[in-house]
Amino acid sequence: MAFIVVYDANVLYPNTLRDLLIRISQAGLVQARWTNEILDEMLRALARNRPDIPLDKLDRLRQLMNGAVRDCLITGYEPLIEGLKLPDPGDRHVLAAAIKAGAQVIVTRNLKHFPAAVLRHWDVEAKSPDDFVLDQVGIDGRTVAASVQQIADSRTRPPQDTEDVLSQLERDGLVESIAALRAG
């Protein structure tokens, strides 16, 4: 059975990071999971910050994401939310989804919102996207590098090479991961 991870909305927001995280799952390194509530949060942020993106394109993004990763949607987690205590009550749905899915990791930029002492009770760990991708590089750096190459190959307007994608991921916060990929 694959290692299960829940991607929080804030790591699905940046386009290139989202693409890499999905491709890591498609390659079989992990089983990525999320909820409609997580996608709603991510798409609301995109709509707010990028009003130039038409709503039909945001709906299409949801469809593409859900179609890209087999069994990605977590349902039935809602009854768990009320019983959970986190510093930001708005994040309880993410932990509830992770518990329901049997996830080992929540990938998030908001590590303070997911204290280790609380998550330990549920055998879940919160990791930054950089630490998570760095772990994947350590497990199978070739597969992660191939995922980066696939992203570069898919970008034709404007064309991008692998270094362009690595630089974008570095700007998205994957500093250690990109250093490891460049060294490998």
Structure description:
The mean pLDDT is 96. A four-stranded parallel sheet has the order 2-1-3-4, sandwiched between helices. It has ten helices and four strands; from the N terminus they run βααβααααβαβααα. The radius of gyration is 16 Å and the shape is globular. The chain has two domains: 4-131, Rossmann fold; 134-183, no CATH class. The chain is 59% helix and 7% strand. The chain is α/β, with parallel strands linked by helices.
Radius of gyration: 16 Å
CATH topology of the largest domain: Rossmann fold
Straight-line N-to-C gap: 28 Å
Q: What's the arrangement of strands in the largest beta sheet? A: 2-1-3-4
What shape does the CA trace take?
globular
Number-wise, the strands total 4
Question: Which parts are unreliable, with pLDDT below 50 for 5 consecutive residues or more?
Answer: none
Mean pLDDT: 96
Strand content: 5-15%
Domains, number: 2
Q: Total helix count?
A: 10
Q: SS-based structural class?
A: alpha/beta
> Mind telling me the CATH class of the largest domain?
Alpha Beta
The largest β sheet comes out as:
4 strands, parallel
**CATH architectural category of the largest domain:** 3-Layer(aba) Sandwich
Give me the strand/helix succession: EHHEHHHHEHEHHH
Fraction of helical residues: 55-70%
